[in-house]
Automatic annotation (TrEMBL):
This is Orn/DAP/Arg decarboxylase 2 N-terminal domain-containing protein. It comes from Penicillium oxalicum (strain 114-2 / CGMCC 5302) (Penicillium decumbens). The lineage of its organism: Eukaryota, Fungi, Dikarya, Ascomycota, Pezizomycotina. The keyword DNA damage does not apply. GO terms for cellular component: cytoplasm. One of its GO terms (molecular function) is ornithine decarboxylase activity. It comes from the Eukaryota. SUPFAM superfamilies: Alanine racemase C-terminal domain-like, PLP-binding barrel. Belongs to the Orn/Lys/Arg decarboxylase class-II family.
Length: 280
């Protein structure tokens, strides 16, 4: 059970006094897609106070944890967080806590994972060499990112010539899909969306398209909400139209779990696709 403040400790003392506790420590990668440091984590000076309070309350603290932020882009931040964790572990040991676990959290991305792994290994060897510690990581997003591909049908199209004139020049074509921000794409309000590819166009699956035949599109979801914009600049074949299908890879990290109840379900989309496949 984790804690990072005095109120939480006192609540644990009242309700779960036999719990084995983990102190959540502050760690922050400002470049992470989702920062968690403003909400969770005790700073080093506060960590010492919390360890003392836990001891005075008769609570058992067995380790520390941190999370640099989801979608971390700076692997070096792990070295800083692991170094700070060692200081907190030492403080806990001096107070009589049996510190034996370090949870380095998650935040791993496919782009920086290899570099992060090297940084973490070196930092653990430097700061925890020879210590009888258990180390835990939470690489959930990294593992599942490429486990899901979302396929969407095109339900409407609007050509650029139909759009009003803009001081910035002509607007892109527009495609409207049967899934959007209120469904599988909610997380892409806060991070870049994967670029779509063509699944089926004019009855042909995975069609080959010359670069000269590509056009730029704004990709919209199916709702009446102007926020429901998946991508503002997607490059796809210029002749896509209603009934064609596109797909988005690497959607496993933050998609189904963020779906709102009002959205079209991805399973519904895939069911429709299966119907298309079965049409003679």
């Amino acid at each position: 059970m984790t804690f990072d403040n005095e109120a939480e400790l006192r609540k644990i003392k009242q309700l779960f006094p036999r719990s084995q506790l983990i102190l959540r420590c502050f760690a922050s990668d400002p470049s992470a897609t989702y920062s968690l440091s403003s909400k969770f984590g005790a700073h080093p000076e506060e960590s010492l106070k919390l360890l003392k309070l836990a001891k005075s309350l008769g609570l058992e603290v067995i380790g520390v944890s941190f999370h640099v932020g989801s979608g971390s882009k700076d692997p070096k931040i792990f070295e800083v967080a692991i170094k700070d964790s060692r200081r907190v572990v030492d403080a806990g040991l001096q107070l009589g806590h049996e510190m034996r676990l370090v949870d380095i959290g998650g935040g791993f991305s496919t782009e920086t994972f290899d570099m992060a792994a090297v940084t973490i290994k070196d930092a653990l060897n430097t700061h925890f060499r020879g210590m009888p510690m258990d180390f835990v990581a939470e690489p959930g997003r990294y593992f599942v990112a490429n486990a899901l591909t979302v396929a969407c049908g095109i339900i409407a199209r609007r050509d650029s010539r139909e759009n009003p004139a803009s001081p910035q020049g002509p607007m892109n074509h527009m495609l409207y899909l049967n899934d959007g921000i209120y469904g599988s794409f909610l997380t892409y309000l806060f991070e870049p969306c994967p670029q779509p590819k063509v699944l089926r166009a004019s009855g042909e699956f995975y069609p080959r398209t010359c670069s000269s035949d590509l056009a730029n599109y704004i990709i919209w979801g199916p709702t009446c909400d102007g926020i429901d914009c998946i991508l503002k600049d997607a490059e796809l074949p210029g002749d896509l139209t209603c009934g064609d299908w596109v797909y988005f890879s690497n959607m496993g990290g933050m998609s189904l779990q963020t779906e709102m109840e009002t959205s079209p379900c991805v399973c519904y989309n895939l069911a429709n696709l299966l119907d298309c496949l079965l049409v003679p």
